[in-house]
Design goal:
The structure holds two protein chains of two kinds.
Chain A lengths: L7 E5 L2 E5 L8 H8 L18 E7 L8 E7 L11 E4 L13 H8 L9 H12 L7 H7 L11 H9 L36 H5 L7 H7 L7 H11 L7 H8 L10 E4 L2 E4 L4 H10 L4 E3 L7 H4 L7 E4 L9 E3 L3 E5 L4 H8 L4 H7 L5 H6 L2 H7 L6 H7 L3 E5 L4 E5 H4 E3 L2 E2 L6 E8 L5 E8 L10 E10 L2 E10 L6 E2 L1 H7 L6 H14 L10 H20 L27
Chain B lengths: L28 H6 L15 E7 L5 E7 L1 H5 L3 E5 L24 E2 L5 E7 L2 H8 L3 E6 L6 H7 L2 E9 L7 H8 L2 E9 L11 E6 L5 E5 L4 H12 L6 E5 L13 H15 L3 E4 L2 H7 L6 E9 L5 E13 L5 H10 L10 E9 L13 H19 L3 H8 L19 H11 L2 H14 L3 E14 L8 E8 L5 E5 L8 H13 L6 E3 L2 E2 L14 H28 L6 E4 L2 E4 L2 E4 H10 L5 E7 L4 E3 L4 E3 L3 E14 L5 E11 L6 H19 L31 E7 L23 H13 L15 H28 L1
Parallel strand pairs in B: 1-12, 10-11, 14-15, 18-19, 28-29
Antiparallel strand pairs in B: 1-5, 2-4, 2-6, 3-5, 7-15, 8-13, 9-10, 9-12, 11-20, 13-14, 16-27, 17-18, 17-24, 21-22, 22-23, 25-26, 27-28
The chains are: A alpha+beta, B alpha+beta.
GO molecular function, one term (chain A): iron ion binding
EC number (chain A): 1.17.1.4
Pfam families (chain A): CO_deh_flav_C, FAD_binding_5, Fer2, Fer2_2
């Protein structure tokens, strides 16, 4: 029988930690607050919606190399301690060095008056630190993206945004080594943390392509270097290569101590949580723990623990299975491993399917996208997921696997009913295979929700049609939020098929939606609104297809400007 | 001592940040960003601490048939279960009026009402145990809406009426009927969840005197102290309440923290152990009060120029099952039903509707936002009727000399708004942008822009006059460091920082010399809630009083010791100057100590001039008014009703600012919070009276991406004509209502499809769904007019 090591090792704020005998369903947040007495990380909602518990999880992408640590912001309330093996957990207590040598993000927050009650602040600091420690620019888009999962009820965010914009003008306590994913989708196939790339391969090659984040480069950017002595001493240390003694720096000397033992597990009298590293190990685990539940990102599953207080005694983590984190893009097909996070998926799809990436910016939050996986979202079969309609419209297929066999099914056949899929016990989603839209295909997706960031769709439409001599020869209208499962509008599709693409046909198709769907009224929208908007989105897509110059999507295009007078500028005396 | 200076640039390169009028950083800023700031749940828990979870009603109104807690008691980790029978003293924890039993009796009156509480070794064990209760109800008819409550005349408190002239006279009616134009409108505005990031929490520890020490996240420690004493049947002096800071309050921790602390105190009383009680977010959203829903009905008569000639306003607040603070909240809605405008003969009626829902409570603005929405909607409607720009109509109705008496008899003495509105009109480039918006809308069938400029006039003072008092305690230690305690609580608004600035200024020392420590009922007694924007006004003055008393003694000593006249003694630049001699402050303090001079004092303050007679509904309830104005521009997607706020300009009156950084923070934060109330934050209830918007997954407060990309905030600095601390003005609540400009701009965008001649209904919150409804209503109006024109042509 498969055992796996009944102990996990990881770095906590730069120091090695070994843990055993913790419950398999213990979240990082409860671990910090009840086992470690580390109270800086706050619980705001325990459901991954407010960001007060944001921590960074650093993953060494190339164990053999001394560069390339990918720090990502995650919600500690819905992430398991068991998932930390071989990783680096950084909390707000780990950012500053001794003697309050504040991290640049912390200093920018203080100087910009960006905390009021302070309860959301540790999470906000961590989200901005993830950006600061990454290779991405801290421009407005990236700052807003970094903050997309952090709620603040006091400040109105303006000073927080300004702190994010200015953090790099405060030189200093960066890790100097981190090559985080950042918040844009600037990953490309030459970056070291490309999902699926075997650790270590091409590493020396790729690290040089990353913009140099040597700490002193930030110093040069400091306008006028109006810094007092305390800060200068930090810079001095950094410039000497030692760096402030914060978690990022300490971690460098401790990484080698973390063992690479296989399939680490947390075991307690309650049960076991195991994180296999390869598909072979995964299969052993499935055989050894037939009653276990799979956990991928856990962003939905762990709500059973934090909201309903249920126990999850047997868990098999999919997030570290190497084979499930690969991808490939050919001229015809995109293949995505089932355990790729949304952040990874965005990086892969940026070139082949930019519409999907644009939509994913409104999907969950930065923290959720860093953790949540495409496979998990599909297996979870929630009626409110945004990806299933997209995959329906693109005629995607899934490769499912058990210990002994693999099979391929169309996404269209995968969903049986509310929260029910074709998946058999012990079967997992191995790959998602997406045919690339052909030349002449028109593909568009729209999400409608009360709030732009981190909200669940009231209505989601993914639409693809093919025109030949102006006639629709193929059409797929896939809707989310309109039925218990993500569903195609068969009646409306029938109206359009074989018709010339004209306003009258769209009108009829929109009318036919009433026969296709009887949506619910719920907390997100009324039934009437859903039906009405479902039809109007068809019109919108029609216009986008026929008159691409007409301004109809400008709502997503906005330019933030720092106010003329911000809180650190001159004040009337 | 704190080392704030380390994080600032040298003084010579930036203006000094610590004196009065300077942007000193929040006293906890470094603690916030490093995670060292401690909130109640972060405290080191005493050994054996018990964790609570409470069972709550799932029925809106009914008799309890069965309450079987056997399985709860047997659940893993449970120490004991407590119900109503275990309360040793008074069962009622109503803050002003009775009506809030700590545990329900035979009858439940809302979904979420506390039935019992479980004490267990861990938070999770307590939560799991609660789920095992078996409760059966005999349902009774439930009143769930304002309209039903109005129809049944179901009120938690009597209706109150304010009227220009004599109560009961019909001047307003005659004025409306005599006016050349009349219109009516109804607006139903939903409430708002506070969504403080730190949920309700307390830690209650037993004391050796048989009392309890309560750490609470509360805006009103004295009320927590008093209620805990009542519930335990103890004299008040056996109970201490302590608040270092809250993770946000916004009114939601004014009265709502009491029941939590009382529940924990009951368990502490019976077990002799420390007890902590923290509500999970979902329960916090289901079981604690929110901003009141309001229905407003306005009938107004006006001139052809849009000047209000007479008005009849009815405001009905959804109070929930008990009075809580609803008397003051509906009163404040009524006091602000004029907002910034001279109403002429007016009647304002306020109902406090009783519904079988959670008892609604204080929320930043305290009813005023709802009163203002009613009148601002009316001014928009008048403008559309007359085909004028709403800003023109607003300006014509502003209070001004000769037109300066409110419907409750207070005279407006300082007319700042005509100037504020005028300045903002220019700085926001209102008229050029108005033309640009109209032009944009003419050429774009799919996206529509809207623009609005709205003013705010907010009355400052508790309308319950006795609450306008505060105490403070100032200590100077022999090294020259100062310690301050006062009656106010810190919830992020920067009160501790401002009061430290006041005290530092009195002694001429840097703000880093002043430490403000936790607000405790055993240091300053009988405190008022930190509410009504009054924190700095009251506590700043009380602290200054304490400081001046100490100073008086020091001056007398210096005068004698250095043989100079008293008026030659000054405190400045960390020194004490006596004639031609000077001494470091710390050295002088030590000298004073050796000469047996008192180095500590209490201080006290009461607000002058204010009074209100409820019988005649006349008086001067407010010491002064804070003013401001905002201009907002929005863009709407007409396919879906989704929208963005593109630009906001604000000019706000804070008097002389004690701390402009903190004041701007309050303005920006208040504005965005108000914007959330009026746009994306939608409370939803099901037909059984359950809140279904019960988590951040389905209740959407603004995010960073909702902040207007152009957001210009400026202070209108003009010394308060009243003698407030540093002649500053209160700033906590007034800016929230600047967000009405966003709502009005959304309505403006919708009205554009009817060529601005129709004012579509748009009940707040203006969610995309409601904006789409408003657009469709405006389109239908155009269609209807076209049809009517066609009909006329046919009949010709």
């Amino acid at each position: 029988m498969f055992q796996g090591g009944a102990v996990i090792e990881f770095l906590f704020n730069g120091e090695p930690v070994t843990e055993s005998n913790l419950d398999p369903d213990l979240t990082i947040l409860r671990y910090l607050r009840t086992k470690k007495g580390s109270m800086g990380t706050k619980e705001g909602c325990a459901s991954g919606d407010c960001g007060a518990c944001t921590v960074l999880v650093g993953e060494r992408l190339a164990p053999a190399a001394d560069r390339g640590i990918d720090y990502r912001a995650v919600n500690a309330c819905i992430a398991l301690v068991g998932s930390l093996h071989g990783k680096h957990l950084v909390t707000v207590e780990g950012l500053a060095g001794p003697d309050d040598a504040l991290h640049p993000v912390q200093r920018a927050m203080v100087d910009n008056h960006a905390s009021q009650c302070g309860f959301c602040t540790p999470g906000i600091v961590m989200s901005l630190a993830a950006l600061h420690e990454s290779a991405a620019d801290n421009n407005v888009d990236n700052v807003l993206e970094a903050l997309s999962g952090n709620l603040c009820r006091c400040t109105g965010y303006r000073p927080i945004i300004d702190a994010g914009l200015k953090s790099r003008t405060y030189a200093g306590a960066g890790n100097g080594l981190g090559i985080g994913t950042g918040v844009d989708d600037s990953l490309d196939n030459t970056s070291p943390n490309v999902p699926g790339k075997p650790p270590g391969s091409d590493f020396s090659n790729t690290s040089s392509s990353v913009p140099d984040l040597a700490p002193d480069s930030g110093f040069e950017k400091t306008p006028g270097s109006v810094l007092d002595t305390a800060v200068s001493s930090v810079l001095h240390k950094t410039a000497n290569g030692a760096g402030p003694d914060n978690a990022f720096v300490k971690a460098q000397s401790h990484w080698p101590e973390i063992g690479d033992r296989q399939a680490p597990a947390l075991v307690s009298p309650l049960g076991r949580c195991v994180y296999p590293r390869s598909e072979r190990e995964l299969k052993h685990c499935i055989e050894a723990m037939p009653a276990a539940r799979f956990i991928a990102g856990g962003t939905d599953l762990l709500l059973e623990v934090t909201q309903s207080y249920r126990r999850l005694p047997q868990l098999i983590g999919l997030a570290d299975v190497a084979e499930l984190k690969t991808h490939s893009v050919t001229d015809n097909v995109i293949s995505l491993g089932g355990a790729l996070s949304y952040t990874d998926v965005c990086a892969v799809l940026r070139e082949p399917l930019p519409e999907v990436v644009a939509l994913l910016h409104r999907f969950g939050s930065r923290q959720i996208r860093n953790r949540g996986t495409l496979g998990g979202n599909l297996a979870n079969a929630s009626p409110i997921g945004d990806m299933p309609p997209l995959l329906l419209a693109l005629d995607a297929e899934l490769e499912l696997s058990t210990v002994t066999a693999r099979r391929r099914v169309a996404v269209a056949d995968f969903y049986l009913d509310y929260k029910k899929t074709l998946l058999q016990p012990g079967e997992y989603i191995r790959r998602i295979i997406i045919p690339r839209p052909a030349a002449g295909d028109f593909f568009k997706c729209y999400k409608v929700s009360k709030r732009f960031e981190d909200d669940i769709s009231a209505v989601m439409l993914a639409l693809r049609w093919r025109l030949q001599q102006g006639v629709i020869t193929e059409v797929c209208l896939a809707y989310g939020g309109m039925a218990a499962i993500p569903k195609r509008a068969a009646g409306a599709e029938a109206v359009l098929l074989g018709q010339p693409l004209e306003a009258a046909a769209i009108e009829q198709a929109a009318a036919a939606l009433a026969g296709d769907f009887s949506p619910l009224s719920d907390v997100r929208a009324s039934s009437q609104y859903r039906l009405r908007v479902a039809g109007r989105l068809l019109h919108k897509a029609f216009l986008a297809c026929r008159a691409p110059g007409v301004a109809i999507d400008r709502l997503d295009d906005r330019q933030y400007q720092s106010p003329a007078r911000s809180a650190t500028q001159s004040w009337p005396s | 001592m704190r080392r704030i200076k380390e994080y600032q640039v040298p003084l010579r390169q930036r203006p000094p940040k610590t004196g009065l009028g300077k942007p000193a950083v929040h006293d906890s800023a470094v603690k916030h960003v490093t995670g060292r700031a401690r909130y109640v749940d972060d405290m080191i828990m005493p050994p054996g601490v018990l964790h609570l979870a409470s069972g709550a009603s799932t029925c809106a109104h009914g008799k309890i048939k069965t309450l079987d807690l056997a399985a709860v008691k047997a659940s893993d980790g449970v120490v004991a279960v407590f119900t109503r029978a275990d309360v040793p003293g008074d069962i009622d924890v109503g803050p002003v009026y009775a009506g809030d039993p700590l545990f329900a009796g035979d009858t439940v009156e809302f979904v979420g009402q506390q039935l019992f509480t479980v004490a267990a070794h861990s938070y999770e064990q307590a939560q799991r145990a609660v789920q095992k209760a078996v409760v059966e109800y005999q349902p009774l008819p439930a009143v769930l809406t304002v309209s039903t409550a109005l129809a049944q005349q179901a009120f938690v408190l009597p209706t109150h009426t304010m009227q220009s002239g004599a109560l009961g006279a019909d001047d307003y009616r005659r004025a409306i009927e005599a006016a050349p134009q009349r219109l009516c409108n109804d607006v139903y505005m939903k409430g708002q969840e506070h969504f403080y990031l730190e949920g309700q929490v307390c830690l209650v520890c037993p004391t050796e005197d048989g009392g309890v020490h309560v750490h609470t996240s509360s805006q009103h420690p004295t009320e927590v102290q008093k209620l805990v004493a009542q519930v335990l049947g103890l004299p008040i002096h056996r109970v201490q309440a302590e608040v270092r800071r809250m993770g946000g309050g916004f009114g939601g921790k004014e009265s709502q923290a009491g029941a939590l602390a009382c529940t924990a105190a009951v368990v502490c009383y019976h077990t002799g152990r420390a007890v902590t009680f923290r509500l999970p977010r979902r329960e916090d959203m289901e079981r604690t009060g929110k901003r009141h829903d309001f229905l407003s009905r306005v009938e107004v008569g006006f001139s052809e120029r849009g000047e209000i000639r007479g008005i009849d306003i009815c405001l009905a607040g959804k109070c929930g099952y008990s009075p809580d603070l609803s008397e003051g909240i509906v009163d404040r809605a009524m006091f602000h039903a004029d907002n910034a405008y001279y109403l002429g003969p007016a009647r304002v009626v306020g109902h406090r509707c009783k519904t079988h829902t959670v008892s609604n409570t204080a929320f930043r603005g305290f009813g005023a936002p709802q009163g203002m929405v009613a009148i601002e909607a009316t001014l928009d409607d008048i403008a559309r009727r007359l085909g004028e720009d709403p800003l023109t109509i607003r300006k014509r109705n502003l209070y001004r000399p000769g037109f300066n008496t409110t419907h409750y008899g207070q005279k407006i003495e300082q007319h700042l708004l005509p100037d504020i509105v005028g300045q903002l009109e220019n700085s926001s480039d209102y008229w050029r942008r108005r033309a640009a918006v109209t032009e944009f809308n003419r050429h774009n069938p799919f996206l529509k822009k809207g623009l609005a400029l709205t003013p705010v006039k907010f009355g400052v003072s508790f309308t319950a006059t006795h609450l306008n008092q505060a105490g403070a305690l100032v200590h100077i230690y022999t090294d020259g460091s100062l310690l301050v305690n006062h009656a106010g609580t810190e919830m992020g608004q920067g009160l501790y920082t401002k009061v430290a600035q006041v005290v530092a200024a009195e002694f001429g020392v840097g703000v880093e010399s002043v430490q403000v420590t936790a607000t405790r009922t055993d240091k300053v007694a009988n405190t008022s809630p930190t509410a009504a924007s009054s924190g700095t006004d009251l506590n700043g003055m009380a602290a200054r009083d304490a400081a001046r008393q100490i100073k008086q003694g020091l001056i007398e000593f210096a005068s004698t010791h250095f043989a100079v006249p008293a008026d030659a003694v000054r405190f400045a630049d960390n020194r004490v100057i006596a004639g031609t001699q000077a001494m470091a402050f710390a050295a002088f303090v030590r000298l004073a100590y050796l000469n047996r001079v008192a180095l500590w004092s209490s201080g006290f303050y009461t607000t002058p001039k204010i009074h209100y007679d409820r019988q005649s509904a006349k008086g001067r309830p407010f010491f002064y008014f804070a003013n401001g104005a905002a201009a907002a521009e929005v863009i709407v997607d007409t396919f879906t009703g989704e929208y963005r706020v593109e630009r906001v300009d604000i000019l706000h009156d804070v008097g002389r600012s004690i701390n402009p950084a903190i004041d701007i923070g309050q303005i920006e934060g208040g504005f965005v919070q108000g914007m959330g109330w009026l746009t994306t934050e939608e409370l939803m209830w099901d037909a059984q009276g359950r809140v279904i918007a019960n988590s951040p997954a389905n209740y959407k407060i603004p995010t960073a991406a909702d902040v207007p990309p152009v957001f210009n905030v400026a202070l209108y600095e003009s010394a308060n004509a009243e003698a407030t601390i540093f002649n500053s003005k209160a700033v906590g609540e007034p800016p929230l209502m600047l967000a009405i400009s966003v709502w009005s701009a959304l309505r403006d965008a919708c009205a554009s499809v009817a060529d601005y001649r129709f004012s579509p209904p748009l009940d707040p919150p203006a969610t995309p769904e409601r904006v789409l409804d408003a657009l469709d209503a405006a389109r239908a109006h155009v269609g209807g007019e076209a049809a009517a024109t066609a009909d006329r042509e046919v009949t010709k």
